[in-house]
Amino acid sequence: MITHSKTQSLEQTLSAIVEQKKELPGALLPILHDIQHHCGYIPQIALTIISKALKQTEAEIYGVISFYAHFHLEPQGKHTIEICRGEACQSMGSMALEQAIKSKLNIDFGQTTPDKNFTLEPVYCLGNCACSPSIKVGDKTYGQMTSEKFSSLSEQLSLYKISLGEEH
Amino acid sequence: MTTRITTLYLPIDTTALSMGADEVAKAIEFQTTANQQAVKIIRNGSRGLFFLEPMLEVETAQGRVAYGPVSIDDVESLLAQGMLNGAPSHPLYLGLTESIPYLAKQQRLTFQRAGIIDPLSIESYIKHQGFNGLSNALTLLAQGRQSIVDEIKASGLRGRGGAAFPTGIKWQTVLDAKVSSPEQKKYIVCNADEGDSGTFSDRLLMEADPFSLLEGMIIAGLAVGATQGYIYLRSEYPQAHKILEQAVALAYQHQYLGDNIQGSDQNFDIEVRLGAGAYICGEETALLESLEGKRGLVRAKPPLPAIEGLFGQPTIVNNVISLATVPTILAKGAQYYQDYGVGRSRGTLAFQLAGNIKQGGLVELAFGTSLAEIVNDFGAGTYTGKPMKAIQVGGPLGAYLPEQQWHTPLDYEAFSAIGAVLGHGGIVVFDHSVSMTEQARFAMEFCAVESCGKCTPCRIGSTRGVEVIDKMLAAHQQGQATTQAELNTLLVDLCDTMEDGSLCAMGGMTPNPVNSVLNHFADDFITDQPSKHVETLLKASAKEQH
Predict the structure, then answer these.
(1) A130 in contact with chain B, both atoms CB, cutoff 8 A
(2) What pTM did the predictor assign?
(3) Which of B181, B215, B437, B461 is most buried, by the most CB atoms less than 10 A from its CB?
(4) Could you report the predicted ipTM of this complex, rounded to two decimals?
C-alpha cells in the first residue's frame, strides 16, 4: 500500500522531473521519457503535474501518451520483452518464435505474467535484421533467437528475480 | 621485463552485442589476465560484416587481422593458437580485415571510418580525416553560405531516407526562406527514426561513427544559417542513444558544438530527442509534430517543412546517411562524390542485406550494381540454404520482387520503372517457405497498426485490406471461386484508393507490397495457405480488430 508520505514524495519527484525539462521547446516527450524511465510507467498523477506545468489539458497529454507504443499508463513487468514482427525477422521464422514465446510465458502481447516478471510487447524492427529473428529485453537486443535459447534466457531472468527478491 | 601490449578491437554496436560481444570481451580480459598477457581492448564500431559478429581484430605489423564469429567458447583456443600475434591456424581466422572480400569489394565513402575507429574518440575521428569537411565549409563560408549549398547541389546527393529528393535543392529552399520574426531561428533536424524492417545503416553509422553525423549537421547549419539541430532518434535504438549522447557531449567539450565553433565565430547546438515507438514519425511532418511534443500526426503539404517546418520555421529535415555523407562531399569535393553512381543516382548507397541471407550486413556500393549481384556475391544465398523466392527492397512499403526482376540495377529510376522502390536500401530475402499471402496480409496489418489515423484511406483502408484478404482465404477454403474473384477486384480497388487518396507515403505506398504479390505471385496468392502457427496469429489479430 502506498502511504501518504510516499505519495507526496512521488509527487515531488515527478514535479522535479517536470521542472527540469519544462522550458525545453516541445518538452512533452522528453518529460514523458524521464517519468517512464524513473517509474517504469506513467502514473496517473503525472498527467495533472504536467498539465499544470505545460499549460496543456490532461486530455491533450493523455492523447500524446496513448499515441506512442513506448509509453505505458500501467505498471509493467520487471522485464519487458519485445518480439520483432518486421519482415526480416519473419523471413527467419519469427512468427513461430512469437507463438513459442507466448505459450512459454502463457501471455499475449500487452500482458504481464502473474508474477509480474515479464511483459510482452510487439516491436516493429530493432535494426538487427542481419541476425534475425531478434528480441529485446530491456535495453539489450538478442540476435538469432530460437525458442530453445529463449527458454534458457527466461529462466536466467527468473532466477535473477528470485535471487534478488521482489523489488518494490 | 617489458611486455608488449597487444591492441584488440571488438565492436560495441547493437548487432555485435546481440551476438555476445560483451561476453567475449569479458572472457578475453579474464583469460589474458590469468595468462599474464598484456592486451588493450578497443571497443570499435562494427565494420558491418554482421555475419561475422562478434568479429575480433588484432593489431599486427601487417595491419588488423580478423577472427569471427567469436563466441566465449572460442576465446581459450584463440589465445592458445597465437591470436594475439595474428596467427592463421585457428578455424575462425579471416586474414587481414581489409582483404576480406565482403569488405574489399565495397566502395566505402559514407562508412569510411565504420569499424576502424573508436566511435567515442574524437582524436581518432580527426586522425581519420574527420572535420576536414567542416574546415573546408568554414573556408567556403567566407564567400557566402551559397557556396556550401552549391557544393551539395553539384554532388548530386539525394535524400537517403527513401524519398531521394535532391538534398541541395532542399538546402537552397531553407537558405532562401525567411524566419517569421527576428527572435525565431532555422532548424536542422536529423531524421534518425529508422523504422523500415531490413534497414540498419542509420543505426550502424550512429554507433560506429557518430561524429560524422554531427559534422554533417554543423555544415548544414553553416550552409543555411541555422543554429539549432535536433536528432530525432527512435527509442528502439538504446545503444545508438547512449553513443550519440556521449558524442554530443564530447563535441561540446572540444568546441565543435556550442558558441564560436573552433574560433570561427559560428554557433551550432545539437540535442538528441527520443521517439516513442511510432513508425509514422519517420515521415518528416509527423516527426516535426512529435518533436513539438504532440501526437505524430502527418501534416498536409504544402507548406513544405523547408519553408514552415519545426515550430513553423524553415527547417532542413535530412536522413542520417544524407547528413553523414555531407562531410565527405565537403572534404573531397562534389566531383569526387559525383563520379560514383549512374544516371541521376549519384554517389553510393549503403545497402543492407537482411532476413534469410547467409552473409547479412552492410554493403556500401555505387548505384548501378544489380540486386542479384548483391544477394549472390555478397549475401552468398539464403541462410537456410533453400532457393530464394522473393526479395523485398525498400522496407515494409517496398515491393516483393520475383526472380525475373532481380537483374534490375540498383538505382532510383530503374526501380521506379518496375513499380518498386529502393527506399532506404534495405534488402530482405525470403526463401521458398514464405507464404506470399501472409506477406501481402502483413503489409495491410502493419499499416493498420502504424497508421497515424489522420486520413481515411490509410486508417480504414488498411483494416479493410486485412479483412478482404481474410475473406478471400475463407472463400478459397469453401471453394467459392466467384466470391474470391469479386473480393480480388475489391482488393485492387482498395489499393488504388489508398494509393491515390492517402495523405502521405504510409497509406500511399502500402499497396506496393500487396500489388507486387498480386502481380508477380498471382499463383501463390490465397492458394499458398499460411502455415499453422501463422493462422493462429492471424485469427488472434483478426479478433483484436473486431
Answers:
(1) yes
(2) 0.96
(3) B215
(4) 0.95
